[in-house]
């Protein structure tokens, strides 16, 4: 036998702790606090406090695999929990504070969370569901007021933690964290990340052709730490030693732009709707910025990418899901794509992109894998070391193919250069006279009109056609665009049958907790729509 002589070092969270304590101990973590002031810490301090948290958990009887919930904004104490909970062998379960209180209670119950770490400013939200799920202990972070009985102050907990409790040995396959799907198309389902999946995901997300993060960067994760671990970016930044700026509860364009300017942010990450608000603020008052802006969670309209370029901000479009940790596709320009015309480059950047290393993506319909012709569509199926192979407490076995790929429910095509483009979610496709109409394609085209801020297209019941598309439009302030004008604007790109028959103008489009269009609610709003005969 000629066996490998390499060290078998498990890929566990202590790799990040060790780095934070040594090579990058001086790197800053800047958090906007609930009172708007800026709190400054370093990776060294964050790691030290994280280990105090680990020891406090162990002293409190927390055992390997126990779930500890967080209900927090993006700030350094949340980063401490990201490290400290898994260092104790426990599982950090980030609760989504934008969900209905009953849904939060349902998710905590489903995961059987033992303790809760909560921001003081979120206690009113907790009051709305505390009777529905009994956490064993509630730890209040950044508390400024006297605590009611049974609640523990986070700082006091850290202070009282024993100094020398040994930490448990971790296996790379141990559970590290858990997120629930945001339930856009069904009840939330739990996904459990391992130490190994998180570490590998961090390495690949930092690569130049992925989200590109280095120790020369300053990252601002606007995407919440309670949504797919802020796309894993806090861990990626820890791995490479990039400075982190955490915006707390203040996600309005001005607060974010101020932070970007003041802290010299070079990489930011957020969903299209947040960046759309930022575009308006920048159009009204341009600033001198230069940064890469990761965008995902829902499709980034091509126009948004073009507009951000004007402001010195490079949008990087990426696709993923809670089930995929989330990185599955990234739309960076390959050398072949860079050889195309500028317009074509924008089209490529607006696609969802190419799979990074370790990720295997195929697009399949009933006849098998579709050709890379940019026309034939099928469902995206994905396999990677950071894609879930089951849900925590839900069967849904039909979500996996026999050969182990995860069925995403996203319908896409693939162009000759291999770029995947999502046309729609299966659940949102519109069935009209035996044809399928992809609502997302119409939305992206409509959002290319200069007067349109947002557009969501849904199928509405129709006697003759079974369904017809209706477009809900939000116009930019003080702008106008009639139905005829919008129809004519997108007509060159689509068959006649695809063009929406109705346009309604709304102040806002209902959104899910993760900022996606809430099409279930829109369909409910327009279910009794009377079509003109
Ligand atoms: P939920 O499935 O409950 O909405 P997720 O946040 O996991 O919660 O959403 C994943 C879905 O979001 C994907 O399946 C896809 O439909 C959509 N999505 C994510 N990123 C993009 C993107 N860049 N373009 C289009 N759709 C996207």
Describe it for me?
It is a single chain. The protein has 533 residues and is an alpha/beta fold. It has 3 domains: 257 residues, Rossmann fold; 114 residues, Luciferase, domain 3 (Roll); 97 residues, ANL, C-terminal domain (GMP Synthetase, Chain A, domain 3, 2-Layer Sandwich), CATH 3.30.300. It has 17 helices and 25 strands. An 8-stranded mixed sheet has the order 2-1-11-10-12-13-14-15, sandwiched between helices. The longest helix is centred in the N-terminal third of the chain and has 17 residues. Bound molecules: adenosine-5'-diphosphate. Adenosine-5'-diphosphate binds next to strand 14, strand 19 and strand 20.
Tell me what portion of residues adopts beta-strand conformation.
15-25%
Cα shape: globular
Bound molecules: adenosine-5'-diphosphate
What CATH calls the topology of the largest domain is Rossmann fold
Tell me about the biggest sheet?
A: 8 strands, mixed
Helix content: 25-40%
Q: What is the count of β-strands?
A: 25
Q: What is the CATH C level class of the largest domain, in words?
A: Alpha Beta
Rg over C-alpha atoms, rounded to the nearest angstrom: 23 Å
Distance between the amino and carboxyl termini: 80 Å
Q: Please tell me the overall pLDDT.
A: 95
What is the CATH homology-level superfamily of the largest domain? ANL, N-terminal domain
Order the strands across the largest sheet as they lie in space: 2-1-11-10-12-13-14-15
């Amino acid at each position: 036998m000629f066996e490998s002589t390499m060290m078998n070092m498990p890929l566990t969270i202590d790799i990040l702790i060790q780095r934070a304590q040594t090579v990058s101990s001086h790197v800053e973590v800047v958090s906007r606090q609930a009172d708007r002031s800026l709190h400054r810490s370093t990776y060294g301090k964050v790691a030290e406090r994280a280990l105090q948290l680990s020891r406090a958990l162990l002293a409190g009887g927390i055992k390997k695999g126990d779930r500890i919930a967080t209900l927090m904004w993006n700030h350094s104490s949340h980063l401490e929990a990201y490290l400290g909970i898994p260092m104790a062998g426990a599982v950090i379960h980030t609760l989504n504070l934008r969900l209905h209180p009953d849904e939060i209670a349902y998710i905590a119950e489903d995961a059987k969370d033992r303790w809760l770490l909560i921001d003081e400013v979120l206690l009113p939200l907790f009051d709305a569901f505390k009777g529905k799920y009994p956490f064993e202990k509630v730890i209040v972070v950044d508390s400024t007021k006297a605590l009611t009985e049974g609640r523990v102050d986070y700082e006091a907990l850290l202070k009282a933690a024993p100094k020398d409790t040994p930490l448990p040995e971790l296996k790379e396959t141990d559970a590290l964290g858990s997120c629930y799907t945001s339930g856009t198309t069904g009840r939330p389902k739990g996904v459990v990340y391992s130490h190994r999946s998180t570490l590998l995901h961090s390495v690949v997300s930092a690569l130049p052709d992925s989200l590109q993060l280095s120790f020369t960067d300053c990252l601002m994760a606007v995407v919440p730490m309670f949504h797919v671990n802020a796309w894993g970016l806090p861990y990626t930044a820890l791995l490479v030693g990039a400075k982190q700026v955490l915006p707390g509860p203040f996600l309005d364009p001005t607060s974010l732009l101020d932070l970007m300017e003041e802290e010299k942010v070079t990489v930011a990450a957020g969903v299209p709707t947040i960046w759309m608000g930022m575009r308006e603020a920048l159009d009204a008052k341009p600033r001198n910025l230069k940064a890469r802006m990761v965008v995902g969670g829902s499709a980034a309209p091509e126009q948004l990418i073009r507009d951000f370029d004007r402001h010195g901000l490079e949008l990087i479009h990426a696709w993923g899901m809670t089930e995929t940790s989330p990185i599955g596709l990234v739309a960076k320009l390959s050398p072949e794509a860079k050889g195309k015309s500028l317009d074509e480059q924008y089209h490529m950047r607006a696609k969802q992109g190419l799979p990074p290393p370790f990720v295997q993506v195929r697009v399949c319909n009933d006849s098998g894998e579709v050709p890379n012709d940019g026309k034939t569509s099928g469902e995206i199926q994905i396999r990677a070391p950071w894609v879930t192979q089951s849900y925590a407490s839900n069967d849904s076995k039909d979500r996996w193919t026999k050969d182990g790929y995860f069925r995403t429910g996203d319908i896409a095509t693939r162009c000759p250069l291999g770029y995947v483009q999502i046309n729609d979610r299966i659940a949102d496709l519109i069935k009209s006279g035996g044809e399928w109409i992809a609502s997302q394609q119409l939305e992206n085209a409509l959002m290319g009109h200069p007067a349109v801020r947002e557009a969501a297209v849904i199928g509405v019941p129709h006697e003759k056609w079974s369904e017809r598309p209706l477009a809900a439009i939000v116009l930019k302030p003080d702008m106008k665009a009639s139905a005829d004008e919008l129809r004519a604007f997108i007509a060159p790109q689509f068959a006649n049958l695809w063009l929406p028959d109705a346009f309604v103008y709304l102040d806002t489009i209902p959104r899910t907790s993760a900022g996606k269009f809430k099409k279930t609610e829109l369909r409910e709003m327009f279910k009794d729509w009377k079509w003109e005969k």
